[in-house]
TrEMBL record:
Entry EC number(s): 5.3.1.22
Purpose of the protein: Catalyzes the reversible isomerization between hydroxypyruvate and 2-hydroxy-3-oxopropanoate (also termed tartronate semialdehyde).
Reactions accelerated catalytically: 3-hydroxypyruvate = 2-hydroxy-3-oxopropanoate
Name by which UniProt lists this protein: Putative hydroxypyruvate isomerase
Domain Xylose isomerase-like TIM barrel: 32-248
GO MF annotation terms: hydroxypyruvate isomerase activity
Any Pfam family: AP_endonuc_2
UniProt record similarity statement: Belongs to the hyi family.
Length: 251
């Protein structure tokens, strides 16, 4: 199995994303070949290129789009959404050669708003399709009114779209908090999963912490291994002092 650290959540004692990138390159306990990042926009494209050229080039697996909820309080038209979010997200995706983008949308107050956002998701997936970028939607358990808080609804959105590059982000933390019953949920989502992230529940810490709710050894070895061959994102909170020797168990 292949893993990529999320530099937005890990190594949180290192203040700058660029310094976290360098830290990953220099680690000795586990050799990472790839990363993912929620917010690469904190660093300019040119600065990223400089950091990458001066260090080992790590593969960028995933970035988040600019969060729509940070850009506006109203559901925009697609043209406005493209100007507010998509163009800049695409610039970073192309510059970093990213092939997966998590579409971070916004909160809602009623179901009609949900459908408007879903329409934006469909249009965004078509926007990225010519660039061979997979668009991911993720149910979130940490935003009270987020438009998507159900993996069942996420499956319906993807199935109804009939858009080949629109997939589900499977995150063990959110899945456990929203639904539990991970085995059945994962098995029914297999055809629709585009990316996987893991962290322990309820503290969003190391997946192998035994005082959490999820047995990630079972989750990884029995549920994911038979069908998912791509990188697994380590999107959890920890410092640079944390060990990654546990990953060797899944090599």
């Amino acid at each position: 199995m292949r893993f990529c650290p999320n530099i937005s959540t890990l190594f949180n004692d290192i203040p700058k994303l660029t310094e976290r990138y360098i830290h990953i390159v220099q680690r000795k306990d586990y050799r990472f070949d790839a990363i993912e990042c929620q917010n690469p926009y904190d660093v300019s494209v040119n600065n990223w290129k400089e950091i990458i050229s001066n260090n080992k080039s790590l593969k960028w697996i995933l970035i988040n789009s600019l969060p729509l909820y940070d850009q506006t309080n109203m559901i925009p038209s697609f043209n406005d959404y493209q100007q507010l979010v998509l163009n800049r997200t695409l610039d970073y995706a192309k510059a970093l050669n990213v092939k997966k983008v998590h579409l971070v949308m916004m909160d809602i107050t009623n179901d009609s708003d949900r459908q408007k956002i879903i329409d934006l998701v469909y249009q965004a997936a078509r926007f990225f399709q010519p660039h061979h970028i997979i668009c991911l939607i993720e149910p979130l358990s940490t935003r009270l009114n987020y438009y998507l808080q159900s993996y069942s609804i996420a499956m319906d959105i993807v199935k109804s779209s009939k858009i080949a590059n629109l997939k589900i982000m499977l995150d063990s933390f959110h899945l456990q908090r929203l639904h539990g019953n991970l085995t059945e949920r994962v098995e029914e989502m297999i055809p629709f999963i585009g990316h996987v992230q893991i962290s322990q529940t309820p503290k969003r810490d190391c997946p192998m912490n035994e005082d959490g709710e999820v047995n990630h050894r079972y989750f990884l070895s029995k549920l994911l291994a038979p069908f998912y061959q791509d990188f697994i994102g380590l999107e959890y909170n920890d410092s640079s002092k944390a060990s990654f020797e546990w990953l060797n168990e899944f090599s």
